Amino acid sequence: MKTLTFRDPGYAEFVATLNRRAIPSNEVRDLVAGIIVEVAQRGDDALVEYAAKFDQVHFQPGEWRVTPDEFTAASRAVSAETKKAIKASLKNITAFAKRSLRKDWSYRNAEGAKVGERFLPFDRVGVYVPGGKAPLVSTALMTAGFAKAAKVPEVLAATPCGPDGKVNDALLYALKAAGVTEVIKLGGAQAVAAMALGTASIRPVDRIFGPGNKFVVEAKRQLVGAVSIDLLPGPSEVLVLADKTGNPKCIAADLLAQAEHGGDSVIGFLTTSKSLLQQVITAIEEQAAQLSRGEIIREVLEKSSFALVVKDLDEGIAIANAFAPEHLSLVVEKENKRLKQIRTAGAIYVGNLSPVAVGDFLAGPSHTLPTGGGGRSFSGLRADQFQRRTSIVKLDEKSVAKSLPHVAEFARVEGLDAHGRSVAVRVEDR
């Protein structure tokens, strides 16, 4: 773990690198662009080749669709304890989602026209659920579960399978419980392209949701226009900001929890207390030795973790806002005051007793959150993102007459006389 204090040489230069922009490398951009072109031009044949190349699984076109028998077998294989946990999570997700759904409304404007908005669920959406290093059962719930709460009639899920062509039983059970209507055993940028563009065996969707690796995220970015997306949620990351009140064991546990995702995960720790920093480092070493994914964790600790002793909390908050973390753990005195100063985090966990893992699995808000600095522009996944918004305008004789003078002036200024005439004829006819 890279460790610096605000008095150390190189501290300012390192802090400057934490002002991130979620921009892909040229290599990733070009590779994904090529995959999208192949899927667009060759459809199922390209998917067959990519499944063999990247996942070492050999399909015939269409064989990647999960069958009813596979869902039934998965349900029988999943333990009662797992089913209970999935049910509890979905209950919280549904309750949270229903409170954030948008509702139709209308009012009369200054000229008396009736204006408003209507919100309907998308007809067909796609959710991407990573399944490489770990079966992300919770991600199935925290994407498809929101679609179900929004009453989306068709939900297509894409998740990679193993070389044996199977998807984890608990993941399949969770997808079904969350209301998914179809599952395809495909992953990577090629799965995103298939959902967006469609193939002979896969009907395209209206919007794509869910996290993934850098290739999945880049595919979503490049396919905007062919389809809409939720946000750009990439590899997991956490930033902890704590003063002397922080519990070192809890902080270490939160950092390790996100590090075990592996890959390009990023973990960071900011504190005003040098003593706390040393205690956290010691706790990380002690706890990491007891964890099953120790090798993956050590790789993240060596490659993409940092700990900084900041001058004061104001500086720590400025760094946190520049970093725009996916998860921010805030453990400080006067937490309500400091909470108001955090502007760019995807999700904030307040106090020593608020583990990020509860948000990951159970609390209710989706854990699909912006990463790589995307929190400056995007918010986390919400139920209202599964709704299509349409504005409604209705005028009567009185309101159209009152609107005419203003419309006529806009038409004159912009040189669009047909616009003005389209209102005038209605007043003249009256």
Automatic annotation (TrEMBL):
An example Gene Ontology biological process: L-histidine biosynthetic process
* PANTHER family in alphabetical order: HISTIDINE BIOSYNTHESIS TRIFUNCTIONAL PROTEIN, HISTIDINOL DEHYDROGENASE HDH
Q: Which UniProt keywords apply?
A: Metal-binding, NAD, Oxidoreductase, Zinc
The identity of this protein, by name, is Histidinol dehydrogenase
> What family is it from?
Belongs to the histidinol dehydrogenase family.
Residue positions of the active site: E326, H327
Q: According to its UniProt record, which cofactors does this protein need?
A: Zn(2+)
EC number(s) reported in the record? 1.1.1.23
One term of GO molecular function: NAD binding
Q: Where does NAD(+) bind?
A: Y128, Q190, N213
Q: Do the record's keywords include GTP-binding?
A: no
The highest taxon in the source lineage is Bacteria
A Pfam family found in this protein is: Histidinol_dh
Q: Which positions in this protein are listed as binding Zn(2+)?
A: Q258, H261, D360, H419
